[in-house]
Write a structure and sequence with these properties.
flat
Length: 62
């Protein structure tokens, strides 16, 4: 088994990484807050609406 694991490039590097900020939920909350405050949510909603509308124009007979 050790021979197999030693053949994988970078395997030891993956296991040896340190986590700088283990607060995953806090990071997700901050990212979502930034998503809302930066106005990206409006771009998402407008894009979904336009994409759905465009799909309706381009689908023939369905």
């Amino acid at each position: 088994m050790d021979v197999l694991l030693s053949q994988i490039p970078g395997f030891g590097t993956i296991l040896a990484q340190t986590i700088r900020d283990p607060d995953v939920l806090g990071q997700m909350e901050a990212a979502f807050k930034n998503f809302i405050e930066s106005g990206q949510v409006w771009a998402l909603l407008i894009g979904l609406f336009l994409g759905y509308t465009f799909r309706g124009f381009t689908s023939y007979g369905r």
